[in-house]
Amino acid sequence: MTIVTFTVQDGGVSIFKFDHAKGRCGGTLARPASVECALSVLEMEVEQINKGKYMHYMQKEIHEQPESLTTTMRLIRGGACKSKTVLLRGLKDHLKTIRRSRRIVFVGCGTSYNAALASRPIVEELSGVPVTMEVASDLVDRQGPIYREDTAVFVSQSGETADTLQALDYALENGALCVGITNTVGSALARKTHCGVHIKAGCEIGVASTKASNWHFAYTSQIVVMAMLALAVGGDMISNETRREAIIDGLLDLPSKVKAVLKLDEEMKDLAELLISEQSLLVFGRGYNYATALEGALKVKEVALMHSEGILAGEMKHGPQPSNCFSCLSYLFHKHLFCCSKQQSVIQQLQARKGRLIVMCTKGDSASVSVGGSCRVIEVPHVEDCLQPVLNVIPLQLLAYHLTVLRGHNVAQTRNLAKSVTTQ
Ligand code: AGP
Fold this sequence. Notes:
- Pfam families: SIS (PF01380).
- This protein is an alpha/beta fold.
- Helices cover 42% and strands 19% of the residues.
- It contains 15 helices and 15 strands.
- The protein has a five-stranded parallel sheet with strand order 7-6-8-9-10, sandwiched between helices. A five-stranded parallel sheet has the order 12-11-13-14-15, sandwiched between helices. Strands 1-2-5 form a three-stranded antiparallel sheet, with no helix packed on it.
- The protein is globular, with a radius of gyration of 22 Å.
- Bound molecules: 2-deoxy-2-amino glucitol-6-phosphate.
């Protein structure tokens, strides 16, 4: 066991590390050694640290996503968006290797895994490289195959999650190109990977904030960064130029569309009041919105402490017996009409059961998803399909927040959640 102490004296900070195993001296701990630490300056405004007009940091972070997304895009695109290209400085020397990889392996835990899952289709589509998904702990448990010809992309908000770091060591040992996507400059993940992108979604607030903080805007910023990764990797293909330009236009529109979704706050509070004493909430999604379903359910269970599950809608007929359902649906795209009509059939099956059904769809589509007003519908603006998960998760974040408050749980100090999961 290692104990670290901090002493603040005469305007200076001393850090001491007691190593329980090494430092024993006649039954007591030996005098600690002073530890040299690199100082990093937090580039934050006072308003970022204060809760401002918000009741809780979680609420503030949900509502500040238009700004965090703008920052993420401004800092990584280097103004190059005007010419409809994306420049990821941290990756530019490795793009050729990524394009030639046998496969891209996304690795992460929890919310970061979900963000990677949301980005998988667009990375596959634009790069033409197959993408596989790995939950970090499972990759390590299985010692799953990782090859020199692979690019392993590690996604982590904190950059310090033990499972993800262990998977990173494993991928490095196996010779893969390791790319990091993290919010934390100087984190272990940023230091150990060969190259990477910093999402710049905002600094951790500190004492009062919890594991639940930061992950709201990290999720949406991570998806944006991975869409940019897809654009950069697929950047030299003429065949997908129109698609790439549409995505870049969509990225630029995103902050204003997020603002529009945030106006659903009262509606989500009202919905939370309706669901307050329910036992369970099932969230169905398919295609790009499978990840939305997983992430929405994760938020509900970790902060509102209500049982919730994200389910791939295609699995509906293979077991789940829903009572309360929140069905995520996003459509309008020619390419995904197939997906859309399948989701509509899932909605019909859900309607046939006795449960309460809530459907999320793009603006203007409520009449077709809720024939004769048969279920409650939440409309979100339409954006390029691969960016739709950024908008669709926000009502679920708001729902989780309001459920937490209404159920009387502590939003600032969620039970059993540590800031970074640094143990396995
Ligand atoms: C906490 O709110 C997250 N839901 C949690 O799942 C987190 O994403 C996970 O522990 C991984 O953390 P990381 O992104 O810092 O690696």
